[in-house]
Write a structure and sequence with these properties.
By secondary structure, this protein is an alpha+beta fold. It contains 5 helices and 4 strands.
Length: 153
């Protein structure tokens, strides 16, 4: 479904990205609507797939998940069966929080969040055992400079 977003829709989306738990009355007042039209816009944006879900964002440090690893993967296999097996293996690993197919020298990039090096090593062993890979390279994040889930709407 194609949807045209006006300025109120965009403001609603920005506000919901800040806090999806805000009361509808407060959200409506912030964007200059009454409650019913505000709710109808949110429902329309959800039905159109613009809003895909609402989640709680967690502090990884408070959960003892302080190590972020970017895993670059190269493979000699590019057939759909291999990709399906690799995607299923990565999806089954909760430590893999993002997974991309890339252009260029690296075929796939995974963002992994784990407790420590030992936890990453265990994940690495599961990953290389899942499907044939030609090269796996890991980069450990030293410092997080910016992190946001908000899209620029």
């Amino acid at each position: 479904m194609d949807i045209v977003l006006d300025q109120i829709d965009r403001r609603l989306l920005r506000e919901l990205q800040k806090d999806a738990t805000v009361a509808i009355a407060e959200l409506a007042a912030t964007v200059g609507l009454s409650q019913t039209p505000c709710w109808k816009r949110i429902k329309r944006l959800t039905d159109a797939g613009v809003i895909t879900r609402r989640v709680a964002l967690l502090d990884p440090d408070k959960l003892d998940l302080g190590l972020v690893v970017f895993v670059s993967v190269r493979t000699n296999r590019h057939d759909p069966e291999w990709l399906d097996a690799f995607a299923k293996a990565a999806a089954a690993m909760p430590e893999v929080v993002e997974f991309y197919r890339l252009s260029g020298d690296t075929d796939y990039l995974l963002k992994v969040i784990v407790k420590d090096i030992a936890a990453y090593d265990a994940l690495y062993k599961r990953l290389i055992g899942a499907v044939p890979l030609s090269d796996v390279s890991s980069a450990f994040a030293m410092e997080q400079i910016k992190s946001t889930t908000a899209l620029p709407v």
